[in-house]
Design brief:
Elements (H helix, E strand, L loop, with lengths): L10 E7 L9 E2 L4 H6 L11 E2 L5 E2 L4 H8 L3 E8 L7 H10 L10 H9 L9 E4 L14 E4 L14 H14 L8 H20 L2 H4 L10 H14 L6 E6 L8 H25 L6 E7 L18 E7 L5 E3 L19 E2 H13 L20
Length: 379
C-alpha cells in the first residue's frame, strides 16, 4: 500500500551496534592469507561468504543486506574511526555521540541536529529513540526527545486498565507539570519535560492504528524496533530522526555463533524495513546509518576477539550511490596499529555527508569542525 512521501522531508534512521562490531567478520577479506593466519578459529571459510569484490565479502548471514548492495542502494564505509582510538566502550561511544574526540562533549550531534531542524521545539517528536533511556547522541538541553520501549503499549500509565483511574492519574500528571513558569529553573525544566512527555505520548499512541503493511517482520528486538520506526514514519508525525540500538557485539568469547545471529537478525530486519519503505514509497526520502563504536583486534583470542579499532559503517537508501568508500585497512603487520586495523577515515566525514548532503543543515557547528563529505548521496 503506497502512501506517498508524506511531507517530502528527509528521514534519518540510525542503528547503533553496541559493544564493538567485529569488522573482519562483517566485511571479510576472504582472499587474504593474513586473515586466516590471525584468525585461527574465529574466521569464515572462503566458500561460505558473500563476495562483493575479489577481495572482500559480507558475512554469510548478511543476505538481505547483500541484496541491497547488489541493487546499488548500500554504501560501505571502510576504515572508519577517529585519531588516537580509545578502546573503552564508554569513551569511544561518547566520542561518536558528541563528535568530540579530544574533549568531553556536552551535547549530542543528533540533538544539535534536531535543534536546527526544529529551532523553536514546536514538534516534540522531531527525534524519537526506540529503546529505553536516552542515547547521548540525542541529548541536548531544551531539545525534546521521546524514548519508546514498546510502541504498542507506549504512553503514560499504560498499566492502569480502569479508564476513570487512568484519567485521574493523567490529570494529576498534567497539573503537576503545568504550574507557573519562571519561579524555579529546575521546576521549569521538569515541567517542560513532563509536558513534552505527555504530548508525545498522546501523539505516538496513534501510530500503530494508522499502520498497514504487507511486510512481515521477524520476531526479534531489532526487527520490532524497525517496525516501530516504520509505524511512526508512515503516520506522518513530523519525526525526522529515528534512533535504535542493537546490543551484544562485545564478543570476547563464543563469537562465531553470537555474531552470526546478530547479523542474521540485523540484516533481515533492515531488509524487511527496506521492503516496507518501498511499499510505502519512502525509500527515496529515507537514509539508514549503521555504525559501531569500534572494531575488534586482528588476532583472535581463541573463541572471540577483543576491543580494537578501524571499523566499518553502512549507509542505505534510495538516494545512496552504492559502493565502497574509504580504504579497507591493511592486515600487513607494519601497517597495523598495535595489533588493530588502522583507522583511515574520520567518522565526522560520514556525519558531514549526512548533515550537508542529506538533511541539508550546516555540519560545521554540529560536528565541531569542517570535514569533506563523501560523494554518497545522489544529487
Amino acid at each position: 500500500m503506497a502512501s506517498g512521501n508524506g511531507n517530502g522531508k528527509k528521514n534519518l534512521v540510525v542503528i547503533q551496534l553496541t559493544g564493538g562490531n567485529d569488522t573482519l567478520n562483517t566485511v571479510i577479506p576472504y582472499n587474504d592469507g593474513l586473515y586466516y593466519d590471525n584468525r585461527r578459529t574465529v574466521a569464515y571459510k572462503p566458500e561460505s561468504v558473500l563476495p562483493i569484490s575479489d577481495e572482500l565479502a559480507f558475512n554469510p548471514k548478511m543476505g538481505s543486506m547483500k541484496r541491497l548492495w547488489d541493487d546499488g542502494k548500500m554504501a560501505l564505509i571502510n576504515g572508519i574511526g577517529y585519531p588516537s582510538p580509545n578502546r573503552s566502550h564508554f569513551r569511544s561511544m561518547d566520542i561518536w555521540h558528541t563528535a568530540e574526540p579530544d574533549d568531553i562533549g556536552k551535547e549530542g550531534w543528533l540533538g544539535r541536529t534536531a535543534r536546527v531542524l526544529d529551532p523553536n521545539a514546536e514538534n516534540v517528536l522531531t527525534a524519537v529513540n526506540f529503546g529505553r533511556g536516552l542515547p547521548r547522541a540525542l541529548g541536548v538541553k531544551g531539545v525534546p526527545v521521546a524514548s519508546v520501549g514498546n510502541l504498542e503499549t507506549y504512553g503514560l500509565f499504560p498499566d492502569l486498565q480502569d479508564d476513570m483511574m487512568r484519567k485521574i492519574a493523567l490529570d494529576a500528571f498534567a497539573k503537576m507539570y503545568g504550574g507557573a513558569r519562571g519561579q524555579d529553573a529546575v521546576m521549569d525544566f521538569l515541567g517542560q519535560t513532563g509536558s513534552d512527555a505527555l504530548k508525545g505520548a498522546d501523539i505516538l499512541r496513534t501510530a500503530p492504528g494508522l499502520y498497514s503493511s504487507n511486510v512481515e517482520y521477524a520476531a526479534n528486538p531489532i526487527a520490532d524496533s524497525l517496525k516501530s520506526v516504520a509505524q511512526v514514519m508512515f503516520a506522518n508525525l513530523g519525526t525526522r530522526i529515528y534512533y535504535t540500538i542493537q546490543g551484544g557485539y562485545d564478543t570476547h568469547s563464543g563469537e562465531m555463533a553470537t555474531h552470526a545471529q546478530l547479523w542474521d537478525h540485523l540484516s533481515g530486519a533492515v531488509g524487511d524495513f527496506w521492503d516496507d519503505l518501498v511499499e510505502h514509497d519512502r525509500q527515496d526520502d529515507t537514509l539508514i546509518f549503521i555504525f559501531s563504536e569500534f572494531g575488534r583486534r586482528i588476532k583472535d583470542n581463541g573463541s572471540g576477539t577483543d576491543h580494537g579499532s578501524g571499523g566499518s559503517a553502512f549507509l542505505v537508501g534510495g538516494q545512496v550511490i552504492g559502493g565502497m568508500y574509504g580504504e579497507y585497512p591493511s592486515l600487513e603487520p607494519e601497517k597495523q596499529l598495535e595489533g588493530d586495523l588502522q583507522f583511515n577515515n574520520d567518522f565526522r566525514r560520514t556525519y558531514a555527508t549526512i548533515l550537508d548532503r542529506w538533511l541539508h543543515v550546516g555540519s560545521e557547528d554540529i560536528i565541531n569542525g569542517s570535514f569533506e563529505p563523501h560523494e554518497i548521496i545522489a544529487r
